[in-house]
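The material for today's practical consists of a large collection of protein records. There is nothing in a record beyond a sequence line and a structure line. Backbone structure tokens are a discrete shorthand for how the chain folds in space. Nothing more is needed to start thinking about how sequence determines fold. As an example, a complete record with its sequence and its structure tokens follows.
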Amino acid sequence: MTTNPELVALLAKTPVFSGLDEAGCAAVAAEMREVSFSASQVIFGRGDAGREIYLVTHGRVRLSVLTAEGRELSFAHAEPGALFGEIAMLDGDARTADATAVNKTTAYTLTKSSFLRLIETHPEISEAMLLFLCRRIREADQQLEAIALYPIEVRLARFFLAAAQAKAGDEAEGTVTIPFTMSQTELALLIGASRPKVNTALSLLESNGALKRSGREIVCNIDELEITADR
């Protein structure tokens, strides 16, 4: 079987499989199956049975839940290189959230049976998955805290600061330009606010010099974002 070298390289950058050598990543790639979704297509819904984890290669996937009042709360976007769907894959229970393709999306799936075969020959994957899940819990705790305690401009500053640091590293300085194709509606869902309030907060950050919108990019001023984010 021919192994996709691009997939192997992408797996080496994921938190779960980055500890594997090239042969190990190739073994994982050989177990994966490519799938594609059109814009707005529901990949799975909360409560669905789930037996596979997904690795996004192109496009973006919104992970969200509906509140008791019927309001959608988006808690994450899975972009190229991101894994999602791990909880149901591991425990065999129902999906805990909805997953919807924001735009045309391509991903690779790895079933639970394949995952179990892989950890027999590569036990280091087990520890990496455990650390990955712990990181997910920390991120969820921080997001809930931000929505409950901080004003919108602080949440936005932390969002863009994290995006800038993801691109340039935790020691990023000066200005960092990040691609940004997300609509204000999607951004509002992600930080738990209304679109008009997000627009107002974005204008405030621009007036403070924390960021500058330029077409499909945003220029982030690290120092100003850290001041607004209170970090």
Observations:
- DSSP finds nine helices and eleven strands in the chain.
- The mean pLDDT is 88.
- The first strand starts at residue 33 and ends at 37.
- The first helix runs from residue 5 to 11.
